[in-house]
Design brief:
Elements (H helix, E strand, L loop, with lengths): L1 H19 L6 E3 H6 L4 H9 L3 E5 L2 E4 H5 L3 H15 L5 E2 L1 H7 L11 E5 L12 E5 L7 E6 L3 E6 L1 H11 L2 H13 L4 H9 L7 H10 L7 H11 L7 E8 L2 E9 L4 E5 L11 H17 L3 E5 L7 H20 L1
Protein name: DUF559 domain-containing protein
Amino acid sequence: MQGDAGFMETRDLASRITRDWPAGKTIAATDQLTAAGLGPRVLNAARASGLLFRIRHGVYIRLVEWQQKTPWEQDMLRLRAHALATHGNACYSHLSAARLLGLRVWNAGREIHVSSPSSLSSTSKVRGVTVHRRTVSPEQLMRIRRRHMGIVRLTSLEQTIVDCARTSPFVTAVIIGDSGLHQGAKIEAMLALLDTLAGHRGVAAARKVIDALDSGSESAGETRTRLFIAGMDIPAPEYQVRLIVRGNAYRVDGAWRDIKLALEFDGKTKYFDFKPTDEAIYEERLRERELMEAGWSFIRVVWADLANPELLRRRIKAAMLNAQRRMVD
């Protein structure tokens, strides 16, 4: 009977949250929820019952909705929650600025990163927030409008890439930098920023990141594949190669032209983002058929392959050897 009563209480609580949750809000602050009739006692009970998830102190989301979000969507919700809790006063930098700028962020932590010249920042010593004590020059600051967040202060595109290059793991930083080049980041501007930081921690690592950037990589997977191949004792392929077959122009992610071997990274969204699935699959099969009939072979890489580097290394070398033999035959 006690269990039945508890179930009824939870069900009633769930109904109340559904009824009173602020309209149009995915996340809501305590004051917004209190104004809607969901005061602290209700919020505590809802958290204990597994109905609400507290993203950070004073900001909530319905648990079922949180669980349906992808990890990168959850990262953005954490940023939204921080902006809501701090009333938009923070200046975001490093990985947080990269996310706000729409750069590709892979294998990075959940921490919120802000820059502040003062130790009196309201975000000091808050769990999940890293405060970088520094003064960012005005020309390296910007404001953008983000949906659901309004006007946000953050570091510039080049400053953000340099910050990530100094503090993030190499591959993570190169992925961010590659996507930054697609948004117009200038190598010269990033190198100039590094010149002003001579003697600071991470500058040497950042220069290695900048040297490794390539605008030809159009996804995190392509960047990881390129860096993986760069570490092998084999000739580097050309990237984003345009091939003409039977008067048709086709592009491949990479190619060893001398042995007619094409490299493709197959991410799930690669073919289907801009066209209906059936049409995209048909065009991809047609492209591959025409290239193969013209003597090309393929080595395809997917995300799972990158988790087994030794096997991938053997596959690439075998594909190159087979392609070389075909050229001789």
